[in-house]
Amino acid sequence: MPLDADTLTLLVDATRKFVTERLVPLEAEVAETGVIPDAVREEMQALGLFGLSISPEYGGLGLNMEEEVLIAMELGRTSPAFRSLAGTNIGIGSQAIVLAGTDEQRARYLPRLASGELIGSFALTEPEAGSDALSLRTSARRDGDGYVLNGTKRFITNAPIAGLYTVMARTGEGHRAGAISCFLVEAGTPGISLGKPDRKMGQAGALTCDVVFDDCRIPASALLGGEEGNGFRTAMRVLDKGRLHISAVCVGMAERLIAESVRYATERKQFGQRIADFQLIQAMIADSQTEAYAAKAMVLDAARKRDRGEPTTLEASCCKLFATEMVGRVADRAVQIHGGSGYISEYPVERFYRDVRLFRLYEGTSQIQQLVIARETIKAHSA
Ligand code: COS
């Protein structure tokens, strides 16, 4: 059930105000310390940001995809670490439960994920299984009335603060989807240990680390949906939504970078005039604006299609490929427009330039999106 137009406008405006007045002033501090203050998390909880798309039945706001991407665009206008904290709970940190959980699993976890009391994380990637996710090695061995997990997960977003890990693990042999199952593993279960926080190029404050399972015993009730063999397909469906959400974040970030570029170009004077008056600067602004608009139109179109219940694997990958590459170009132009000032940390574009690099890597690299797009296109034309 979509929100009425007034409520949606109120929510978008409230998010924009929160981003502008509360988060933007904290960007430099979070980049420096790598820590998002607890008070900010509480304010994000109060705004409902942890439960945007989770059903009201479980305490969320129940936004459809079009509404969610509009909010994600607003959150994209600041350091990605803030979005990462809340966005994981409505995306890859909860979607497997939403899509394939039992009623009991939904009732147990979704209300606390929606409120932000519980932080979720998605544990698919491994040291030897990145793009080739099907080759993951973490095993879940049936043992008595439960399973025993062994293996290492890598670059797991929010793992250092997560209360719940959605873990894809092998319950069968071979490079095939039916060999992978999905488990809901609670933090603090004996046999889980965390690696050191990853030191990254950017996105300070968005926490990632290894999660290691060493004879970690979990109950049979941790098996998602109560059925083995659906873990990989569920993970792919989770990513179909996640890729659209990330694309929306890229649109917001591009709009912020354009705003920063215009601000600088209208203040900075060279050769006796504002650099915004030079056509070569204007060309960069025009290219960035055009590309951001194209990405926005794509994301909204794909989100509406998803809301109509149509398959959007192809569209999600098209959006992820275009929007993440687009924001990389926009960030590059933003630095160029700032000249030498764009290379020093006093201006946010230096930080955003590093932050946006991750968008082309996580939730599937650009090359994986190309592969999915080509496969889906060839399939559609061969049908
Ligand atoms: N929705 C539902 N099911 C899907 C799907 C989707 N979007 N994509 C694939 N599947 C299913 C396939 O239908 C197939 O099922 P069957 O075995 O029943 O036929 C199964 O999953 C295996 O898919 P496929 O044959 O395409 O597997 P491949 O190993 O060839 O390729 C890719 C899968 C490369 C697309 C996948 O591994 C991938 O997305 N890798 C990137 C992983 C990633 O994004 N990591 C980021 C970590 S999370 S931050």
Describe this structure in words.
- The protein is of the alpha+beta class and 383 residues long.
- The chain has 3 domains: 5-115, Acyl-CoA dehydrogenase/oxidase, N-terminal domain (Butyryl-Coa Dehydrogenase, subunit A, domain 1), CATH 1.10.540.10; 120-229, Butyryl-CoA Dehydrogenase, subunit A, domain 2 (Beta Barrel); 233-382, Up-down Bundle (Butyryl-CoA Dehydrogenase, subunit A, domain 3), CATH 1.20.140.10.
- It is 51% helix and 14% strand.
- It has helices spanning 5-23, 27-33, 38-47, 65-75, 80-90, 95-100, 103-115, 231-267, 279-307, 313-338, 348-355, 366-382, and strands spanning 120-123, 139-143, 146-157, 164-170, 180-186, 192-194, 208-219, 269-270, 273-274.
- The longest helix has 37 residues, at 231-267.
- The protein starts with a helix and ends with a helix.
- 49% of the residues are buried.
- The mean pLDDT is 97.
- The chain binds coenzyme a persulfide.
Number of domains: 3
What is the CATH superfamily label of the largest domain?
Butyryl-CoA Dehydrogenase, subunit A, domain 3
Note the quaternary state here.
single chain
Strand order of the largest sheet: 2-3-7-6
List segments where confidence is low: pLDDT < 50 over at least 5 consecutive residues.
none
List keywords for this structure.
51% helix; 14% strand; 12 helices; globular; binds coenzyme a persulfide; Butyryl-CoA Dehydrogenase, subunit A, domain 3; 383 residues; Butyryl-Coa Dehydrogenase, subunit A, domain 1; alpha+beta; Butyryl-CoA Dehydrogenase, subunit A, domain 2
